[in-house]
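Question (not urgent): is this output format expected?
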Amino acid sequence: MGLTKRYGIFLVLLHLAGDTCIMASNSKPNFVLMLADDLGIGDIGCYGNDTMRTPNIDKLAIEGIKLTQHIATAPVCTPSRAAFVTGRYPLRSGMDSCGGARVVKWLGETGGLPPNETTFASILQKEGYSTGIIGKWHLGLNCETLNDHCHHPLNHGFDYFYGMPFTLVNECRPGRLLEIDVPFRAQLRLLTQLMAITVMTLVIVRYSNMFHITWSLIFYTALFSILFFMTWYLKYGFLQYWSCIIMRNHEIIEQPMNVERSASLILREAQQFIDRNKDAPFLLFVSFLHVHTPMVPTKAFTGKSKHGPYGDFVEEMDFMVGSIVNAIDNAGLKNNTMIYFASDHGGHLEVKDGNNQTGGWNGIYRGGKAMAGWEGGIRVPGIFRWPGVIPSSVNIDEPTSLMDIYPTVVYLSGGKLPNDRIIDGKNLMPLLTRQSPHSEHEFLFHYCGTKLHAVRWHQKASGALWKAHYMTPVFSPEGAGACYDTVICACEGDGVTHHDPPLLFELSADPSESHPLDSHVDPQYKTVLDRIKMAVVEHQKTITAVPMQFSFLNNLWRPWLQPCCGTFPFCWCDKEDGNVTEILQ
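Got this back:
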């Protein structure tokens, strides 16, 4: 279908709740996609929070459409973001795993978004769009050499990048508790101790003449142990300098980054990108560092909320959202720009300061970040604004996915979806323009790593929404609703409970997943489970084996791949020095 015909749907007056929408412009629309990090759906006013001030996000919902069943494809950052930019379950691109890392853990690793994946930015770039990403990437950097940039945003369809190639972690702010890979550090200490014992044993055997052991073997074993220890000691000792960096395109701008001013810089860059590209179609992906730890709001927002640093950080992000929307409106682009706001997954319940939880709130929904099955980890805000094209003050209570942004923006840009791969997302325009009453999603599959934890079925004939849980994370303490004894809940092994028969909830009647159906009594249980099982079988036929990006070897830190502004290992630079003004007031 040609672009003119596609826009025919916008030339129809849309009547909804007494409001008549204006005809849309025939020029190609702009896109501003805003994605928060670790934001709970219960943290926003328009989703029920009456103690957190989010007037700008709430205004977007009033002026547009609020999705009440918007679902993240994965409950942690990297796989969720991979699905967002590719429109595909992360398992299809090897961007998830179990038994080890589920996210990009170092900048000096080889794992990341494969070069053969086609992002929405790549397609829009070919359609004449200026494409930019500002903020967090967290989808990898290099493959084999320091500057091959095979996973870099500029190698995935973006013309411009400013922000963190990694993600915020506690180590980015000196003096905070260590966050990265706490279990691995314990394994590292054990491995170092075993190496020391091995060297001592070889020395004892050499002197006892039990076996023929050469001094050269002992020397090289000891040398390897010392180098191994020093390499990882340096890695953790210099973590702030090596992981917490800001880049502009391929150039390192700050190393280490100044967390306190990062919000101002990101907002400045977003506003400048809009101003530079206002005369031609553009796609701007604003990937907020908010509200991941460490929560470091600027002075203008510190201590202003009712919920400590987390609340301050949320309210600061809301201000940034409002400033970006104002930049669009002031540039005269309001009626020709689709604005979208969401979060990559649910709030992180395990984030604590002493005995107090300091992470997000997921409202009535059970669970949180890293819990693939429970709603709290995957049900996220989803808000669209596009005056004259979609109605205002409308709630849509149909299952939708972060993956749906991909086919939606490709459709609106006049581009074509790749025909050599499965695209799991669905074009949202029929739903958003009220041309269709139902989402195109009948089933959504909820993975934790490579394990299928749960399946959602939208039974359109009856309007019921079902979800079956095959396994769920073990909460600690029992009944707490979170895995407090670990930073991230497990996907398999002793960290999960297998359910046979599966737990089955009718989400439309029980959104908090409090009352599973009785498999022996409820007459609908078998009928629903049989239909879900059939869908799982058909879905699994579409999954093909691909290289896993976060295998043990891919996720090992490689010093020669470590970005460095200066002389390794003493990496330091600040090319923003003297050019920063405080714009968050």
